[in-house]
């Protein structure tokens, strides 16, 4: 807390006496006081009482009592002792030039030589506070100090600090004699015979002290030590490393860069070699090598309007157990990150044109750590033309003609893709797995209203795909009518097109039932939105037309499956497989429902207020009937919706109804039931079979906690984007972004929330269900103690999922945190006591027991 004292010199006071001294010195001395101004007999000494103020050039001084000697050019100031309370009040507050404001018990200042002696000073300097002792300012602006406490605690009587027995403070450095630590007024053995502190008013380089600790299988360690390079105002770098007594090690390079009003980002490269197990085992003899590459880049929205460039790259090694398990999530020990099984990266560029067209290009990758599968898209290109009216006149007057309502659009997507495994990616034939292609889509549509309430839409879409690779299959048929095939990928340009026609109609139907206007429930409103559509597309799966080929066996005869010739698409597995289906002439139907209650508002003191409660939000049913299908013409009926019962509780649900009946298998001894092309009502059933159903909800006993957390995150984002932040402020915001759990909101007294998900499926023979329950919360035991927890329940194994407990203690200028995983595979704990201020971030005590156990 930096104290800022404002003086109001415009307020008029009839009791105030002011005066000026027209001395022969270059700068005049101005003084005033609220109570009284007295002078000695020879008028060389001025005594100022009550809110006294003296200004000499850029030196400003306020105190309860000031003595100004004109002859000696000296100024003395002190506070006064309140006779009633015995408190020392009205301490001198002074400021000199660009230096910050300081408070002292008393001060002696020579206005001619600008020398000063200060007793019991309290001042803020670049995130730290000096208090107590004696200070003497020399004519060359050097400051000599004696028995002064330096601390990041902002109290005049700090909880801890470094006691400087004597020292010299210059513009760029502090040189001291003996220095020792004091905690709660108790001197400790932690000290140095002398010390040198750089006092740069800019970014500077320096050593980063490591964190000592012990790991269950890797031994004692020194973690995250290294060197910080303050290269310039635009970018910096951290060289970090960790070593373990069993021979394991890890290194990393982290660099941040920024250009104001243009862009900012960071790059993090890390490499590690970990030995697990006992000495002499294979795991110990062959260390696991791990690496990670993280790059984040964002462009300022005002840098180049209409153009954006961003990057979010996260590539990690898979290794023996995966990067996150091997490195304990980069030594963060975060359980959720350790369980990560997939990563994704993207680098994208986008350009929006003034006529509405837009172009984007992105390179991306997806990794699955457990299977070591990797998918690369290098690059993926999209180009879109917004819908426009080709027959509409710019100067049209009056109602549009029917043909002027026709709209046309265009979109293009290009893909360059490789789907493989990381072990095969860089082999000689790695590029042969490349798949390239383009897809084009041209939608044509026309909308109009008929009979005032019916909304109609007519249109069609033409799609075409271009591929630069295609497949050919050679089939071998066996005597038992089974077959196998060998697939070859051929290079060369191939194209195929498809189209579809559609029309749709929708409207809204309103229903309302009014009840007693004085009752609790006043009205019920039901809104139904039915829609009907018809779509048609010809058969694009005919062999010899489009992308489909007939399956021919070794005797050049077609392969038959249930009497039907087998076919395959030459675009299977290619960059643009397209959408080429069989004949379709189907009617689609759907119904969306919304139900609301109008109830009396208890919070309205007039007794006439009401509020709406959405009972059902978007309960929809949908399905289709294909006239050209050879069997199973009616599709399954899907439904989904949401119900909001209270402000705290809302439920999402969805499911599928199967309209077809089941029959027993005709094979002897079989108990299987098989789906048949016969509707449920034809077998005497009243309702269709529920094929699957699911619902989920989340509930918070204190929704204000979630609201405040979201507001805090928004404010953090806004603060990070502000200009003119100091280095200390920027570093603190970056620390919050890196480790949000290290900063706890003690203003939220308690919170408990949980979420539940249920899934049910039934294929007629097997019924499966799954349940997922997660819960988390926190509580303030006292205004300074907070406990947080998160866990869940595993219904399959009938037990709790790994729990994480954290205890936080606000020690004003210090923080204490305890993180504990009491059971499970990641059983561990850590205790950390550290100074809040980033300027003394290495002043901490940490104890941690890792969760590693390679002997499971």
What does this structure look like?
This is LPS assembly protein LptD. Residues 1-22 are annotated as: Disordered. Residues 174-660 form the LPS-assembly protein LptD central domain. It comes from Pedobacter jeongneungensis. The chain is mainly beta. The chain is 5% helix and 57% strand. It contains six helices and 55 strands. The strands form six sheets. The protein has a 30-stranded antiparallel beta sheet that branches. A six-stranded antiparallel barrel has the order 5-6-11-12-10-9. A hairpin with a 5-residue loop joins strand 33 and strand 34. The longest helix has 19 residues, at 703-721.
How do you describe this structure in short?
It holds the Pfam family LptD_2. This protein is mainly beta. It is 5% helix and 57% strand.
Element layout with pairings:
Blueprint: E1 17-21, E2 29-33, E3 36-39, E4 45-56, E5 59-69, E6 74-78, E7 80-81, E8 88-89, E9 93-96, E10 102-103, E11 106-110, E12 116-125, E13 128-137, E14 143-151, E15 160-169, E16 173-176, E17 179-183, E18 186-192, E19 195-198, E20 206-208, E21 211-215, E22 219-229, E23 237-244, E24 249-259, E25 263-274, H1 282-285, E26 288-299, E27 307-316, H2 323-326, H3 328-331, H4 335-338, E28 342-352, E29 358-368, E30 373-388, E31 406-421, E32 435-450, E33 454-477, E34 483-506, E35 509-514, E36 521-537, E37 548-550, E38 560-561, E39 564-565, E40 567-569, E41 584-600, E42 610-626, E43 637-644, E44 649-658, E45 660-664, E46 673-679, E47 689-700, H5 703-721, H6 727-738, E48 750-762, E49 767-782, E50 785-794, E51 799-800, E52 804-811, E53 814-821, E54 828-835, E55 844-849
């Amino acid at each position: 807390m930096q104290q800022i004292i404002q003086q109001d010199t415009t307020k008029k006071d009839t009791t105030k006496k002011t005066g000026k001294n027209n001395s022969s010195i270059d700068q005049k001395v101005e003084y005033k006081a609220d109570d009284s101004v007295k002078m000695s007999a020879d008028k060389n000494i001025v005594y100022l009482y009550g809110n006294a103020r003296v200004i000499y050039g850029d030196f400003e001084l306020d105190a309860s009592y000031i003595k100004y000697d004109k002859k000696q050019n000296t100024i003395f100031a002190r506070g006064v002792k309140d006779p009633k309370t015995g408190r020392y009040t009205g301490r001198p507050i002074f400021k000199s030039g660009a230096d910050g404001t300081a408070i002292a018990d008393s001060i002696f200042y020579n206005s001619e030589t600008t020398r000063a002696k200060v007793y019991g000073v309290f001042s803020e300097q670049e995130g730290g506070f000096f208090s107590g002792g004696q200070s003497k300012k020399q004519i060359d602006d050097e400051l000599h100090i004696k028995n002064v406490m330096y601390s990041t605690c902002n109290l005049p009587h700090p909880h801890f600090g470094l006691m400087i027995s004597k020292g010299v403070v210059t513009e760029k450095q502090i040189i001291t004699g003996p220095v020792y630590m004091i905690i709660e007024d108790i001197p400790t053995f932690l000290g140095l015979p002398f010390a040198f502190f750089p006092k740069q008013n800019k970014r500077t380089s320096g050593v980063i002290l490591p964190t000592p600790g012990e790991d269950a299988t890797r031994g004692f360690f020194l973690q995250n030590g290294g060197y910080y390079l303050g290269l310039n105002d635009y970018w910096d770098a951290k060289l970090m490393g960790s070593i373990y007594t069993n021979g394991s090690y890890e290194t990393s390079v982290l660099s941040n860069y920024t250009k104001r009003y243009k862009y900012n980002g960071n790059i993090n490269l890390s490499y590690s070699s970990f030995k697990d197990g006992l000495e002499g085992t294979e795991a110990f003899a062959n260390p696991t090598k791990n690496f990670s590459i993280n790059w984040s880049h964002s462009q300022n929205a005002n840098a180049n309007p209409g153009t954006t460039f961003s990057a979010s790259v996260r590539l990690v090694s898979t290794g023996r157990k995966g990067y996150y398990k091997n490195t304990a999530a980069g030594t963060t020990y975060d359980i959720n990150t350790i369980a990560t099984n997939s990563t994704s990266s993207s680098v994208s560029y986008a350009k929006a044109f003034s006529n509405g067209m837009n172009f984007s290009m992105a390179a991306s990758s997806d990794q699955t750590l457990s299977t070591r599968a990797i998918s690369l898209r290098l690059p993926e290109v999209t180009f879109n033309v917004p819908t426009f009216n080709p027959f509409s006149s710019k100067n049209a007057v009056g109602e549009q003609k029917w043909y002027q309502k026709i709209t046309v659009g265009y979109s293009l997507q290009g893909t360059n893709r490789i789907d493989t495994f990381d072990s095969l990616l860089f082999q000689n034939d790695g590029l042969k797995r490349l798949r390239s292609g383009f897809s084009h889509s041209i939608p044509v549509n026309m909308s109009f209203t008929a009979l005032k309430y019916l909304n109609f839409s007519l249109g069609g879409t033409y799609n075409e795909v271009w591929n630069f690779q295609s497949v050919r299959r050679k089939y071998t048929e066996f005597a038992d009518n089974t077959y196998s095939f060998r697939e070859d990928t051929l290079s060369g340009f191939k194209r195929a097109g498809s189209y579809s026609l559609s029309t749709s109609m929708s409207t809204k139907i309103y229903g309302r039932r009014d009840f007693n206007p004085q009752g609790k429930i006043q009205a019920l409103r039901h809104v139904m939105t039915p829609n009907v559509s018809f779509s048609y597309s010809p058969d694009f799966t005919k062999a010899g037309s489009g992308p489909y080929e007939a399956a021919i066996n070794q005797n050049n005869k077609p392969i038959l499956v249930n009497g039907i010739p087998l076919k395959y698409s030459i675009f299977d597995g290619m960059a643009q497989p397209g959408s080429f289906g069989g004949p379709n002439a189907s009617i689609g139907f759907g119904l969306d429902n919304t139900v609301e209650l109008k109830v009396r508002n208890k919070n309205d003191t007039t007794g006439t207020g009401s509020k709406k409660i959405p009972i059902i939000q978007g309960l929809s049913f949908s399905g289709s009937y294909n006239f050209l299908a050879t069997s199973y013409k009616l599709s399954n009926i899907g439904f989904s919706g949401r119900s909001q019962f209270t402000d705290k509780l809302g439920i999402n649900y969805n499911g599928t109804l199967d309209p077809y009946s089941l029959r027993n298998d005709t094979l002897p001894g079989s108990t299987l039931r098989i789906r048949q092309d016969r509707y449920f009502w034809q077998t005497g059933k009243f309702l269709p079979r529920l094929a699957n159903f699911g619902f989920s909800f989340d509930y918070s006993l204190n929704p204000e906690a979630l609201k405040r957390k979201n507001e805090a995150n928004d404010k953090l984002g806004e603060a990070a984007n502000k200009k003119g932040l100091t280095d200390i402020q920027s570093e603190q915001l970056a620390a919050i972004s890196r480790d949000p759990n290290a900063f706890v909101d003690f203003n939220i007294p308690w919170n408990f929330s949980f979420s539940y998900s249920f899934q049910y499926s039934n294929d007629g023979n097997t019924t499966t269900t799954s349940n997922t329950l997660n819960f988390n919360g926190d509580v303030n035991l006292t205004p300074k103690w907070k406990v947080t927890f998160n866990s869940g329940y595993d219904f399959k194994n009938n037990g709790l999922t790994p729990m994480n407990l954290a205890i936080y203690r606000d020690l004003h200028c210090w923080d204490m945190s305890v993180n504990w995983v009491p059971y499970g595979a990641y059983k561990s704990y850590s205790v950390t006591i550290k100074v809040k201020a980033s300027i003394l971030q290495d002043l901490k005590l940490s104890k941690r027991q890792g969760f590693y156990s390679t002997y499971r």
